Amino acid sequence: MSLEFTIPGLDETASEKAIGILQERLSQEQAGALVLKHAHWNVAGPNFIAVHEMLDPQVNEVLAMADETAERIAAMGGSPQGRPDDVLRFRTWPKFEETGRKDALDYLRALDAYYDTWIKADRQAVAELDDLDFVSSNIMQDHVQKLEQFQWFMRSHLID
Amino acid sequence: MSLEFTIPGLDETASEKAIGILQERLSQEQAGALVLKHAHWNVAGPNFIAVHEMLDPQVNEVLAMADETAERIAAMGGSPQGRPDDVLRFRTWPKFEETGRKDALDYLRALDAYYDTWIKADRQAVAELDDLDFVSSNIMQDHVQKLEQFQWFMRSHLID
Amino acid sequence: MSLEFTIPGLDETASEKAIGILQERLSQEQAGALVLKHAHWNVAGPNFIAVHEMLDPQVNEVLAMADETAERIAAMGGSPQGRPDDVLRFRTWPKFEETGRKDALDYLRALDAYYDTWIKADRQAVAELDDLDFVSSNIMQDHVQKLEQFQWFMRSHLID
Amino acid sequence: MSLEFTIPGLDETASEKAIGILQERLSQEQAGALVLKHAHWNVAGPNFIAVHEMLDPQVNEVLAMADETAERIAAMGGSPQGRPDDVLRFRTWPKFEETGRKDALDYLRALDAYYDTWIKADRQAVAELDDLDFVSSNIMQDHVQKLEQFQWFMRSHLID
Amino acid sequence: MSLEFTIPGLDETASEKAIGILQERLSQEQAGALVLKHAHWNVAGPNFIAVHEMLDPQVNEVLAMADETAERIAAMGGSPQGRPDDVLRFRTWPKFEETGRKDALDYLRALDAYYDTWIKADRQAVAELDDLDFVSSNIMQDHVQKLEQFQWFMRSHLID
Amino acid sequence: MSLEFTIPGLDETASEKAIGILQERLSQEQAGALVLKHAHWNVAGPNFIAVHEMLDPQVNEVLAMADETAERIAAMGGSPQGRPDDVLRFRTWPKFEETGRKDALDYLRALDAYYDTWIKADRQAVAELDDLDFVSSNIMQDHVQKLEQFQWFMRSHLID
Amino acid sequence: MSLEFTIPGLDETASEKAIGILQERLSQEQAGALVLKHAHWNVAGPNFIAVHEMLDPQVNEVLAMADETAERIAAMGGSPQGRPDDVLRFRTWPKFEETGRKDALDYLRALDAYYDTWIKADRQAVAELDDLDFVSSNIMQDHVQKLEQFQWFMRSHLID
Amino acid sequence: MSLEFTIPGLDETASEKAIGILQERLSQEQAGALVLKHAHWNVAGPNFIAVHEMLDPQVNEVLAMADETAERIAAMGGSPQGRPDDVLRFRTWPKFEETGRKDALDYLRALDAYYDTWIKADRQAVAELDDLDFVSSNIMQDHVQKLEQFQWFMRSHLID
Amino acid sequence: MSLEFTIPGLDETASEKAIGILQERLSQEQAGALVLKHAHWNVAGPNFIAVHEMLDPQVNEVLAMADETAERIAAMGGSPQGRPDDVLRFRTWPKFEETGRKDALDYLRALDAYYDTWIKADRQAVAELDDLDFVSSNIMQDHVQKLEQFQWFMRSHLID
Amino acid sequence: MSLEFTIPGLDETASEKAIGILQERLSQEQAGALVLKHAHWNVAGPNFIAVHEMLDPQVNEVLAMADETAERIAAMGGSPQGRPDDVLRFRTWPKFEETGRKDALDYLRALDAYYDTWIKADRQAVAELDDLDFVSSNIMQDHVQKLEQFQWFMRSHLID
Amino acid sequence: MSLEFTIPGLDETASEKAIGILQERLSQEQAGALVLKHAHWNVAGPNFIAVHEMLDPQVNEVLAMADETAERIAAMGGSPQGRPDDVLRFRTWPKFEETGRKDALDYLRALDAYYDTWIKADRQAVAELDDLDFVSSNIMQDHVQKLEQFQWFMRSHLID
Amino acid sequence: MSLEFTIPGLDETASEKAIGILQERLSQEQAGALVLKHAHWNVAGPNFIAVHEMLDPQVNEVLAMADETAERIAAMGGSPQGRPDDVLRFRTWPKFEETGRKDALDYLRALDAYYDTWIKADRQAVAELDDLDFVSSNIMQDHVQKLEQFQWFMRSHLID
């Protein structure tokens, strides 16, 4: 990787490491948005409309996260990779296996598990970015905060 | 494919055929949105800000198209497939090969070619849907109309 | 029926036939709005608030459809009949029998059946209007598209 | 009539009487909205656009009144009846006989007469509700206030 | 209690009595807002998101009621007491005992009971204020009307 | 006074009495709006901007009251008198004597006294209208409620 | 008249003359707003709603003019006189004599005549202010421009 | 005519024919907007304000139609001709002969006739475009639908 | 030319002269709007989207200017001529010759020249109107101010 | 305390400690909102309206802080305690003792002292949360930032 | 100074003179915005919040004035100088000497004096621009009008 | 430097150090806003409109940063220095030397260099503030994040 430029005061090595971390987070955010939309379309059962409508703002928030992550990569001198094949190429997390129209609670259970690996990876990224670039770390901290609230929404449906 | 239900007055065979056509269109729309966003992040050169800003509303329009296509599949009794692997699984069109930060006109040239195969496939879908379900056909006709305007925007930059 | 005027380029016989078809659709749309509001007021049970709120935008959309249908009748030189007795006089579909405050899913089941006859009749009207006046047909095609999405919302609650 | 519940501090007999009064008012409000829309579509002559546009906000206000009346019935433990047949079943006022496209002033004259019986019945309901439930009475007092302003609009056109 | 001033035309004794009644209502409204927010945070189960979102506008409406009640006390020459200890000091109604994250229907049942004593006390206040100050009575009548609608929302979930 | 028409269910004598009461209230509201604006322009001193801005919304509210009062007169079959000479002709309250640019607290003191006679007269009107027409009474009750809040604002500045 | 201060660069004599001119214009604008509102309430006949609604924005514009004129007087060091008696005290134009509910065209004819004297006086003021203070002149020029457009609206109804 | 490019899947001959049809429609839409504005400025008589205000949204809608038509020509590879001389050069319909300030009904009569030739030509264009390009046909169908509603507004004033 | 009426205080001869000047300005503004829209549709090259979007607000501003000019003619008692033939009939400036899709800078060069004659003529009109009617002059001064800013936008692209 | 679940990557002990800290902060925020509203109602004197209006946005901001704190507790697997008794039960700071209507500066002095203990406790919480959970710490850091600005507003009034 | 171009109809010498005048005004407007913001941050005492909030809209208005002045210089063919050193280089007025946090009235007194020299210089500029370019003069006349109103706000606080 | 007060829990020495750092950042932000506006006015060439419009939101964001920095200084007990001379007095960075109307890319190159020193200084400030006050550090971290995105916009134009 050769950077176009670096941010004033940040050395190139640190920038490249941070870009590597952010690129993987970008792919997971893009994947997450597709998965949430997939669930938005396929949920069913007595809670259909409530869960269907709950998921859409999450999709929009996650798309905005991906945009912010990608533009940070670019601001650091890198080139964000965001095509469909890139999403799969950088995948280090399990696929989302739920398909077909079925009860909303089934989807929420599967999404809850999906968020588990996502949030863990994001928190790991924050820990690594802390030593490389505080702006990148701040960006990921904000994303984690929102994802943890979304996961709470999902988990709340599953408490009995 | 076994449907959950059919639309009153539409027979199941026609519904299944239409769903098959729409599923492929859905995947291309999801792929198209990723590709346009990828370009949004990577364009550069003297026309950077103008082209960067031109692409974002196109992304949003294409995401709205995908949502409408997927919800039509569901309304017809099918189950839309929208996960990252689904996007690749249903791909019948060439990948978008442009990467790296480079001049906006290079990206516009590549996107122009990408729209060529997209619009052709959408117009083919319209022709086939005309005999199966007028609502599905109307939906795709509206998508084509917008995509052709977006392609005109791209082509306009390349006229000399 | 003697028309006040005809649309330039449309002959009077075709106009009168189209008006007859649209008048019956108008009555069903007015009846449908009343029935949906009746359900909005009477649904109950654990899904009360979600279904109660889902039905209101449908009422508003159906009222807007009735307005568009009626103004098309008038634009074609006819006089739309929209009083309470007119709604019953043009009725060719079964009454909505569900009453009393009861579980939302019971109402959704009854509304699902109500939409069956409504959509079938609208699709029949589209087929007949295609040969008479493309504007009237386009209007009904748009109404069908929305009603089929609303029915999907209802059916989604009933999938298990 | 057996109520689902009663409002804290209101006895069941008073609640049932109030519900009976409100149900008839609900039907007249639903009928009134249909009649005003019917007039909105059929007015003609030199004052067409001004009267056509004046009636639409009245329709919306009357639909909001019906919603408020029906939800009060439900809050008191009753079940509002709002289907097309219900509107006719509870009718205690004369039909609206004006039909066909004709001069706006003719329609305003007929609507003026229609409001006469409506307002009288609403004021009678207020008098009876005063002893049963102040909230129900307040709701109907607000409806009367608006209807009397709307009737003033109509009467103002007829002064010479 | 010595008043700063009295409203023109209202004698001081009546004002003091009305202020006493309003102060207790103010405390219950402040307590009610805290309790509804507490429920908003702790509801769970399959209806989580729908009930969670239904409660927030109620909190805002009740906070607006408390503001109106307190400013009426001040307008009558009194000094509204609104600190945490004041809320408990003026309490004449049972505590809300539900705690912990549990099914939304359990919370709705407890809130339904909480509204019972609240609405009864408000209606009693209206009866007493009628002889003291019509403005204060009108304010409390409007509050009762809204609370009775909110209780209907809660009760509707519990009908089977 | 001979009325153009009467409200359905209201006899002519009661209507004429109510109109007489409302006409005087209308003139005081029009006068009040002029006086408040006069103060808005002439206040000065350390509290200038805060008091200057506090008075403007009061002017707008009072103008809206006058509009409502006048349209009620018209709805009852009367003719509202609203020209400059009419304002003086119906005056039964003391002139506002404060002039010149001077300290805001001086103006607030004078306005406080002006509101005293205004509110007293409005409360007297409510008492008389109660037996004539509940809608007219309700309108004036709402005006009183707002004026008493405005006076509280003024009085609050004068407490030490 | 002794001024509180003068605008930097404007001598006191010119300021006092300009203030005298503006005070009379202020009174006419306040009177004009009352007269237009009076007409708004009393117009009748087949054009009722159209003319009733046309007059309200004129009232608001004229009230804004009066505010601007008064604040200019204050900015020049004067004290604007805006109480009901002030409006009559500075009157140099004929009263508006039209009363009672009657045909809109009768009112438009009377208002047309009222605008004649108003506009003539405003244009005269502009001529005098041109030599005293360009800001005051600009303010009145803008007022004239709007009043001439409003008069055109009125005159347009009277062309046959 | 040599095109810059063609829409993917559309052959050049069909594109050129469609462009020829659309260019004439564009000129009529530009002419129509000028004519409607001309009428907006010159209508007079008792219905002045109502008709004056009714025409302005029509002008805006027709300008938006022209924009859509022109951009379709460009998207198909053509170059829209929109200068004043172009409007006359492509004119195949009669001039609008009404001039001078005169009664609104006279203008509505002349506009009604103007719409007759316009709508007939648009419907003819739709029939021809159906075989050439469904997007161009859809665009013109939407324009026809709106124009027919506008003509209904005009005709409604002329019914007696 | 015989005027319907004159503005109070303006003599008929001056009015007629001013109307003659304004009519020519009106035609140029209508022509200018068509020409700018023509350029909006035909610009191309690397700056396409930026220039395409820059021109649209200019079109809207110029259309608003034409509306203001025409309504001033009417307010002065004249009849504005705004049909397509009128635009050509009053033309005293060179045609806009640029056609076909070509580089945005070519169009900006041609528009810059077009603005030269336009602004010169407008400034000449201001000089003549100064002696006839200050309101007409003010209107044209505002138009000139905006056009000179628009021309600066165009010229800025051409500086190297 | 037994948690419903923990955030992925956070151990249960750290979560419980953080929840304990946040619960006390929640109670202080709820108490603070009540106290600020109490002051909003009771301030008086020459600065009444300015201070009265300054406090309301602070109340809304503090209510939003409490909501965020409580939902963080729930997202971490805890159950936020928000009833009136809970507010007192978790109180570790001095009561607010100011009562009665008195000069705004007296209230600002008392609020300034109240903020002292609040901000100190919040800053202490940030220090402890830093080692437990960065999201919880970030949330409290944002709250501190706003509270310190609000305190600055208060202190600014007290500088002489 | 050599200009890039001149406005059509304006000779180069007049343009250069006007640009010289406008450049100095631009610098004073930029300086004024900094000074007002400086005061916004440093005012204190019992009127803190009211004066703090009054100054912010003035800052925004003055920044908009500077933008308009600078773009006029550019439209006339000049190059506006707006860097920090430019602001001091063109300074012909006394520095603003007030610093430190102190009573709002002290700042208002100092700002009142600052406006004195500013307004005087602006009025002088208007007098000189009148002979050079009416558009530049109009722009400065509008700026003066607003500044004189702002100074009135300041002076109003200082009247006793 | 002697502070008016300190933030609860922050010692005076740390506060004074932080204020010293923030004051220099404030001056650079004020200088930066002037420089960006200077560029906004002077850019030219084929990318004029796109770059001209890109810079304005940056100016507004930087002005908001300066406001936040200054109010933080005040909240910490200091007095922000924001007059034109203060901006120069605290300058530790090179002047912006670009003047005259010239190609946008030339300005972007100069601004890119200007941002280099700005961002480096801001990042240095963050490092120092981390040990003094986390709120001040957070504020500067947010400013850096935005400035780095703005610099990316500039650099993107310069990539070839």
From TrEMBL, chains A, B, C, D, E, F, G, H, I, J, K, L:
**What family is it from?**
Belongs to the Dps family.
What is the protein's given name? Answer: DNA polymerase sliding clamp subunit
Q: Which organism is it from?
A: Bifidobacterium gallicum DSM 20093 = LMG 11596
Per the database record, which ranges form the Ferritin/DPS domain? Answer: 21-158
Listed transmembrane segments: none
Instruction: Supply one GO molecular-function term.
Output: oxidoreductase activity, acting on metal ions
Question: Cross-referenced InterPro entries, in alphabetical order?
Answer: DPS_DNA-bd, DPS_DNA-bd_CS, Ferritin-like, Ferritin-like_SF, Ferritin_DPS_dom
Q: Which PROSITE patterns match?
A: DPS_1
Q: Which Pfam families match?
A: Ferritin
The organism's superkingdom is given as: Bacteria
